[in-house]
């Protein structure tokens, strides 16, 4: 019985004793679950996700539905007991999802209950607010999990290596945005089915285990960012033939030894203590299109990467390092490039006209370098949303740079040496919200076309040579 886009009136449907599947997902149903729901003794699948149901599950009619195999309570206003006590006798239960509800604790007497079910899928993400909780005790008695999601809670304690020990067929484990502490203790056991592991946004310390590649030899997505891992990045990670996404950002890693990277298309190593010349091997992957290396101590010039000028980059972030020399051009043929951030480096010289080829660019940040010269008049990507060129030595009039960038929301050109009039065409940038031209050499009057910018929330033209009346 599917009711995914309707409303439910009356309780007659609660008399359908032979009903096996009931889908009420994606409505605006509210209030408590009706008591008569407990009459559906044959029900195997119940999906009430995406509604506004309320009440404590422990006192609801769900406790009577012992034939359930699939239960989704996600995205409601339920109170869900962390002990899973209401479902201890649901021996057929395999799938349980309760994302975006409220997790409630119970007396310690319920902590040692042993459930009759063996779950395959369990998701309890985004269920706590300021509540400090430990891992649900019933999980100590689960041995067949394939997918486990406890992310976006405030679960405390050591990394639960026992979860891996008990569930050797795990495929996806999500523990991000919790408060796990200590080192990453991996057991001497292979997990060939594990394809996604996310332990980001915790307080883990120590080195990344050197045998991580052997233990998770078929991993596809490995996210360990925003912890306090130290030491080196194991070189073997680049040799995992299945690895596509690697995020080790916002740690304290100091050495990168990655090689090959043959299958990785998303690499995020930003905000670590990595240094030296950027490893050329980083660019060897023909699949690599998202690269984040910002906030490290890399140095040197980037002009010797012409072998990679045919790569189709989508995002390049090399910001806040110590790169020097002229702006590189090896990405200008990337017609799908959406974002490039080279800010806070020591690049010098002009912005090359080759950059006019970047028709699909949405985000550009070259701020806090030593760039000089004019902005090419042909540089005006229509898709450009945010441009940051502040704190350089750019000069000359704006002419027609950004003339066709009708999607611009932010234009920050402060602390340069631009001169001449503020162009009238700026009034055509109907989406512009932030315009910062402070500390340049603009002269003449403020164009009346500025009054056409109905979305404008910040306008800073201070420290110029403007004159005349306000428009």
From TrEMBL:
Keyword Transmembrane recorded: yes
Pfam families assigned to the protein according to its UniProt record, in alphabetical order: LRR_4, LRR_8
How is the protein disposed in the membrane? Single-pass membrane protein
Q: Which keywords has UniProt assigned to this entry?
A: Glycoprotein, Leucine-rich repeat, Membrane, Repeat, Signal, Transmembrane, Transmembrane helix
Q: Which InterPro entries match?
A: Leu-rich_rpt (IPR001611), Leu-rich_rpt_4 (IPR025875), Leu-rich_rpt_typical-subtyp (IPR003591), RLP_Defense_Trigger (IPR051502)
GO CC term (a single one)? membrane
Record's subcellular location: Membrane
Q: Which domain of life is it from?
A: Eukaryota
**Primary location:** membrane
Its protein name is Uncharacterized protein
Q: Which organism is it from?
A: Populus tomentosa
């Amino acid at each position: 019985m599917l009711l995914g886009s309707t409303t439910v009136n009356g309780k007659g449907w609660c008399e359908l004793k032979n009903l096996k599947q009931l889908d009420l997902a994606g409505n605006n149903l509210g209030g408590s679950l009706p008591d008569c729901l407990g009459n559906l003794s044959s029900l195997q699948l119940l999906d009430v996700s995406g509604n506004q149901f309320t009440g404590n599950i422990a006192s609801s009619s769900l406790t009577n539905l012992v034939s359930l195999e699939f239960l989704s309570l996600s995205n409601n206003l339920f109170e869900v007991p962390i002990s899973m006590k209401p479902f201890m006798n649901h021996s057929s239960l395999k799938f349980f999802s309760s994302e975006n509800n409220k997790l409630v604790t119970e007396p310690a007497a319920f902590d040692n209950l042993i459930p009759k079910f063996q779950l395959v899928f369990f998701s309890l993400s985004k269920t706590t607010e300021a509540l400090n909780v430990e891992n649900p005790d019933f999980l100590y008695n689960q041995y067949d999990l394939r997918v486990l999601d406890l992310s976006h809670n405030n679960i405390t304690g050591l990394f639960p290596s026992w979860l891996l020990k008990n569930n050797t067929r795990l495929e996806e484990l999500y523990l991000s945005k919790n408060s796990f502490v200590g080192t990453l203790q991996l057991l001497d056991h292979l997990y060939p089915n594990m394809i996604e592991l996310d332990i980001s946004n915790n307080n883990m310390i120590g080195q990344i285990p050197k045998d991580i590649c052997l233990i998770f030899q078929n991993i596809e997505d490995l996210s360990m960012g925003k912890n306090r891992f130290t030491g080196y990045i194991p070189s073997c990670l680049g040799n995992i033939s299945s690895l596509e996404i690697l995020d080790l950002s916002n740690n304290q890693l100091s050495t990168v030894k990655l090689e090959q990277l043959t299958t990785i298309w998303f690499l995020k190593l930003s905000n670590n203590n990595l240094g030296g010349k950027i490893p050329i091997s980083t660019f060897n992957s023909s699949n690599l299109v998202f690269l984040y290396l910002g906030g490290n101590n890399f140095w040197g010039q980037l002009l010797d990467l012409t072998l990679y000028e045919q790569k189709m980059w989508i995002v390049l972030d090399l910001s806040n390092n110590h790169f020097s020399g002229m702006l590189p051009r090896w990405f200008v043929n990337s017609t799908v490039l959406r974002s490039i951030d080279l800010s806070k480096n020591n690049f010098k010289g002009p912005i090359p006209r080759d950059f006019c080829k970047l028709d699909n660019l949405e985000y550009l940040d070259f701020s806090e370098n030593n760039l000089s010269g004019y902005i090419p008049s042909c540089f005006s990507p229509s898709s450009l949303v945010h441009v940051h060129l502040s704190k350089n030595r750019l000069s000359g009039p704006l002419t027609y740079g950004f003339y066709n960038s009708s999607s611009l929301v932010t234009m920050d050109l402060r602390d340069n040496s631009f001169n001449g009039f503020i162009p009238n065409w700026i009034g055509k940038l109907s989406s512009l919200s932030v315009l910062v031209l402070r500390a340049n050499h603009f002269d003449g009057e403020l164009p009346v076309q500025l009054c056409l910018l109905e979305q404008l929330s910040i306008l800073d033209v201070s420290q110029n040579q403007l004159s005349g009346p306000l428009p």
